[in-house]
């Protein structure tokens, strides 16, 4: 399942559920565009390592916790290799 969009989908879900603010996504989008990877803005919610961002792949497991008015959510993103 390499390059199937797991991190991008997960980051977008976190954003849509209110787990990260629009300003942060806009910051990721600007940084990603500067590196020629504009479509990676949502993946960068979880892909924090410099090597992950440069190579466009998830290298390490990432954990993200947030809550909505009804649920406590924990998401774990893992490499697809």
UniProtKB/TrEMBL annotation:
Keyword Nucleotide-binding (UniProt): yes
Pfam families: GTP_EFTU
Keywords for the protein's UniProt record, in alphabetical order: Elongation factor, GTP-binding, Nucleotide-binding, Phosphoprotein, Protein biosynthesis
Coiled coil: none
Residue ranges of domain Tr-type G in the record: 1-81
Transcription regulation is among the record's keywords: no
Gene Ontology molecular function terms on file: GTP binding; GTPase activity; translation elongation factor activity
InterPro entries on file: G_TR_CS, P-loop_NTPase, T_Tr_GTP-bd_dom, TRAFAC_GTPase_members
Domain of life: Eukaryota
Name the UniProt record assigns to this protein: Elongation factor 1 alpha
Species this chain originates from: Dictyocaulus viviparus (Bovine lungworm)
């Amino acid at each position: 399942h390499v390059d199937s969009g797991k991190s991008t989908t997960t980051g977008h879900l976190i954003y849509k559920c209110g787990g990260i603010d629009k300003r942060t996504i806009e910051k990721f989008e600007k940084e990603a565009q500067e590196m020629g990877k504009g479509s990676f803005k949502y993946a960068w919610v979880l892909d924090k390592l410099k090597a992950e961002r440069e190579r466009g792949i998830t290298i390490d497991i990432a954990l993200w916790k947030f809550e909505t008015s009804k649920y406590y959510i924990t998401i774990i993103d893992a490499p697809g290799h």
